[in-house]
Amino acid sequence: MSVTRKIIDLFGMLEAELKKELHLSPLAPEQDLNIATGKIFRGENYLNLPYIVLDYPKLFNTKNVFAFRSMLWWGNGFSFTLHLQGDSWESRKKKIINNLESLRNQGLYICVNDTPWQYHFEKNNYILLDEFLNQNRREELHQKIFIKISSRLDITEYAEVIPVAKKTLTSLMKLIS
Question: What pTM was estimated for this model as a whole?
Fold first, then answer.
């Protein structure tokens, strides 16, 4: 079995586990949020390297993004990202900004880029959330049109994908509920 097939199978198992976790979460209903099925897809060229993605739960439309994205980027490991934009962000912005402190000491990252469509962990895209909070930068979020909070996992920790993704989803659902 190829490595790609193994990752796709792993993401299929991850989707099933995230569904269970989501049903236990106090998430307020989000109109049009797809919690029935995730989407697994692969690409060949994110910054010249292939990747595999699971979006679950997901909502992508012209006015709104609400997605939990699990991604393997070859040579760079796994990431698990909550992306809110549009109505999903605006309706939760104040609560999230006020409660970011609850995410301290969890090894989470926050996107500081002006575009939500980058996933690398260079300093111009993501910084540790603790560092962001220590720099008193929460007020910057009021001007942003999106928020992305992520966790990372080294490729060598492949066996921890499901527990780390579940823990990340649970922490972030508590933040936004």
Answer: 0.94
